[in-house]
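Q: Structure tokens for this one, please.
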Amino acid sequence: MQTRREFLLTAAGAALIVGAPVLARAADIRNMPSQATAITQVFGDGVKLIAVALEYPDVISTSILNAGDFSVTGRTVSQVFTAQSIGLTPADSGKFVIVRLVETDADTSLQEDVYEGDPEEAKPQIQGGKPNWVAGQKMKKTIRFKEASADVSVKGKMLSTSATRNLIADSFRQAEFADEETGKTLKYNLFIPDNTNQTLPLVLFMHDAGVTSEQTKATLYQGLGAIIWADPAEQTKRPCYVLAPQYDEIIADDDWRTSKYLETTIHLIQKLIREHKIDPKRIYATGQSGGCMTAIAMNIKYPKFFAASYLVAGKWNPDIVIPMAKNKVWWMASEDDLGAFPSFNAITEQLAKQGTKINRAVWNGKWNADQYRFAYDDLTSTHAQMYYTVFVKDSVFRETDSRQGASGHRNTWRIAYTIEPIREWLFEQTKN
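A: Here is the predicted structure, written as tokens:
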């Protein structure tokens, strides 16, 4: 029979075991996790499956993990670590094991094409050097993004993902705006910052024609144009609202026509200003390709609406841009872009004739962050109303990129939104 002392010692030991977190030993990892979640992240060239989060019933220590016990079908594992939540932040221990994947694995794109009728008929017909797209019309080819999924082997036992966590993209809210003035209903994504008690700026991002889609989140998954402004690190430095409309028709064409969505987008911003603490003097516009063209058209039609604009790889008729001569604009193109480069040259020359001071520079798409910072400091050391930077020929391509077709065009915005000093410049601008 136990003595009172033995009983108290035994009870105290049991209490310590129950009260403290249990770190699973190597032998315990033979138990299958209860759930697997696919983790995606958006890069300059689109959304990718970058990790799988395995949830365990007990806390596990990273020190006892063996990366060789984990594999993902068709992918290369780069790292295995524990975490306290679904994400990419390592911890010494946690109930989640994160299986990190190599981002450069082949065929990782989640984008798929959707055709209305014959795929051959959906190809743009080039007439007079330009596609026969017409603003306001639906496209016969649109895109959508598949839900990420993966099959994971844990010590030889298979488990399929049953949920998806899209980093940053999931922080946007989806909604629709029915515009009584234009009769159009616009789907959109809105990021609302944490500090809603403070009056903050709003960034409007408009996607290119290639992302014309019925899928509301397509503009978020296609590249960094919308996502970058909502990144937690970016929000710490430059908190703001981010509006990313999803257009289901061509919004601007090569005959300088625009869809009614142009006015609808302006009306939506006006509505959001009334509903949220958004600073009307700090509304910023940015867009790539067709979205850039629409932003130019907005600057022409509503020259006093935006505090500043970052215009990436677009084009417009230089004969009609004079109303935006007093606006603050950063232009970005590549010498490999046979549409945007000559068009931006003509536009900025026309604006310079109106007395607009424009500082110009040739940059390299392969520079690192410090090199962009030095180049930015040099370019802006003399104040100007507009800045025009061009990626030197061949610098926007990676080793695996084709040089054919519109590759020089698309690769411009793969890089353009990663350059932090330009984002800083945008936020320094305020409407008078």
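A few notes: The longest helix spans residues 4-19. The first strand starts at residue 23 and ends at 24.
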